[in-house]
Amino acid sequence: MSPGLIVLILSLLLGLQPVTTDLYLPALPAITEGFGAGMPQAQLTLTALLLAFGLSQMVWGPLSDRFGRRPVLLVGMGLYVMASVGSTFAATMEQLIVWRTLQGIAMGAGVMCARAVVRDLYAPVEGARIMSKGLTGLGVIACASAPIGGLLAQQLSWRAALMALAVFGAGTLGVLVWRFKETLAHKNPRALEPLTLLSTWAHIVQNPTFWAFTLLSATSYGGLFTFLASSSFVFTGVLGLSKTAYGLTMLSMSLSYIAGTFICRRLLPRLGVRRTVAVAGAFTLTAGTAMGTLALLGVQSFAAIMVPVYLFMLGHGVHQPCGQSGAVGPFPQAAGAASALSGFLMMVSAFFMGGWLGKSLALQKDSVLPLTNGMWFWSVLIAATAWTLVQRYGDMKAPPVRVASETAT
Q1: Is the whole model's pTM more than 0.90, yes or no?
Q2: CA angle 178-181-187, nearest 5°?
Q3: Over 112-171, what HEC string results?
Q4: pLDDT confidence of 406, banded at 50, 70, 90?
């Protein structure tokens, strides 16, 4: 596969996350009203998906180490298309939650394999650059997701927004069937044996580099998830934006994230991983503190939230490629398992945050504080991780197994 094709496939697989979350967010208030459901149930359509997404990776990871990335991807994307069609025609909120949970399980195969593919083909530092390109593609997909979701929900119905997920999944499945070639050079026939699994997990969790970068990506995603899970209610319900305006707001946020991934690629060769992450940590903490302070002072406006969010997303565009590639870097022979465990921990943090947000949004329906306080909380954790653990254990000079950087662009 050419480097351009690899980046395209990474973009589609990593893009499953924003498509599955961002595209339906403008329709979430309409879905909630249409089913006559409460705020906690509405949040469960997102948190159940993310918990299933995290847990499923613990299964998909060892399976991909045993049988290869390609068969896992084909099965996972087939399941994703089926679940997307099912969610479109759900008759109750309970049915929608079940189908969204299956979507999360299927999404785990795609996103987990994307991270493992990067480690299959690239050494860790080069992997961070390639991951940033894939995440730039994710940002482009995220740019389109929210506006398309808002347009479909406003002009057609919320079911049309959910059907768009099936279309994206079918397109991704077609690319995989047509062009994707196996990247795992040496399958591990013992990867699914209980003793081997336990030994692999133990080896991974004892590695401080894994924890440094996993916590960086998990806390950064926690901040993003807080915004995603609460913004549709805050912007449309509290600040009075239309669905279309909200979709455009999400587009502008994604553009800031894309800029962050470009900054990441510029800074990495000049400053190295540790210093690049430290600079991004300063962006993040400044953003969270500004947003939280303004809200506590009673400033409830679009600019008071979004200007800090833009700065937060610049930092997020650095933390995610460095965190996701750094977590699997030390494990060239168990990239699937390491990717799975890292992804699982990211989603666990999002799941518990979702539970808190559901209750807080229900109690403070006319306030922006659930969003601003939540993002401030994660900003502090991100900066603390970037300035301590990553600085101490962020050595990404692991020996390569099969390096493709000579042909990368």
Answers
A1: no
A2: 145
A3: HHHHHHHHHHCCHHHHHHHHHHHHHHHHHHHHHHHHHHHHHHHHCCHHHHHHHHHHHHHH
A4: very low
